[in-house]
Amino acid sequence: MSVISRRQLLAAAGAGFALVLAGAAAGQVGSLQTFEKSSLEVRAASGTHRFTIEVARTAAQHAQGLMYRRRLAADTGMLFIYDKPEPARFWMKNTYIPLDMVFIAPDGRISSIAERTVPLSLELVTSNQPVIGVLELNGGTASRLGIRAGDRVIFPALGAGG
Q1: CB-CB neighbours of 132 under 10 Å
Q2: What domains appear along the chain, each with residue ranges and CATH number?
Q3: pTM for this entry
Q4: pLDDT higher than threshold 60 for residue 81
Q5: What's the pLDDT score for residue 157?
């Protein structure tokens, strides 16, 4: 994976070019991805929690995710959607925000949560079982709202979950 400094990114943007990693595994440099905006609900024992989200569907969107962002507004996040259930593996390289990673089973229930992941870490964060989606939220959000494994994520593209 190539690394691009903030200075390089700002210089490229000033020149009319946006550079970012589009293919993390391939190490390719491409254009900055854009994401569909939507909303979803998490139905928990503590209540129904609504989030404004960006949706990552493509391999390039999955590779970029929330990299290079310095802030994430409260009650917002990113939903990674997979075509079929598969084990999910993430790292925090080039991600400056601590995140809660909410792993979503094929039935729409939360299978596990990796809380407060470490920014810029190369340690893999895994789902430990096949998932249909992963919801990334600000670190500490799941604990603050009482979101736990077994709660349900409601979003139409999650099939049984929504």
Answers
A1: 26
A2: 1-32 (no CATH), 34-161 (2.60.120.1140)
A3: 0.80
A4: yes
A5: 86
